[in-house]
Description:
With about 290 residues, the protein is mainly α. It is about 75% helix and about 0% strand.
Amino acid sequence: MTQRTKAEILLVITCFIWGSSFVIVKGALADASPFPYLAARFILAGLLMFGVMARGRLPRQAILPSLVLGALLFTGYAFQTWGLMSTTPSKSGFITGFSVILVPLIALSFGHPMRSANVGGAALGLLGLYFLILPSGLGAVNHGDVLTLFGAMAFAVHIVVVGNYSRRFSFLHLAPGQIMVVAILATLAIPAAPSATLHWTARLVFAIVATAVFATAFAFGSQVWAQQYTPPSHTALIFALEPVFAALTSRVVTHEHLGGKVLLGSALILAGMIISEIWGGEPPSPVES
């Protein structure tokens, strides 16, 4: 089995963990507001990763990349978690999945050309967002869906930048470094929140431990390692599975019912992801183009 095959299998496992975590986080938000929850989750994950992966040290050259990746990751999770307070796990999953379609658009700013399939995938994704976010016109817009969309934009940039940094810096330092930055930013943001709550229930403790250990420490360590061997566009295609796992988990655990327009919007976004990445192909490097 090649390193690339191992990397792609690991990314599928990571997507399953991330997809199933939407339901867990949704439950945790009944006992904690977004920033205290994120702070607790990422402090635990950061300490675990810093001790196990980085062996308690972070080289000077890895500090700036960790700050950049951590800032992008914090932005994505802040908007996504905030949005989950007023939207469903499955809708949050598919809107977050829109980041896959945005990857080629972000890569364009790094010198990679857009292909017709990428444009077509983006068009399908935007149409899917229309059905998902605007089912009854502007008056019915769920602000949680809009917040989640902002988070998806930050995640798209994060995917591209990780692909760039992971070829120049060790994943043993990048992964814990970015998580520690998220922990610090989430902690600093708590006083700025209008109402910060944290009720230590068994459900919240389970959510923090599960998301810190599996959805953060394991998942992000795996992502940064795997992206050494698989290009951003292939990573993005695998990430198309995340909203599917989110919808299936929400259906099984919470018995969430998806209406016709929500199903149509989700299917269009998923189709846009697949078309953009399968027929869009691997963009050539800026030098080749």
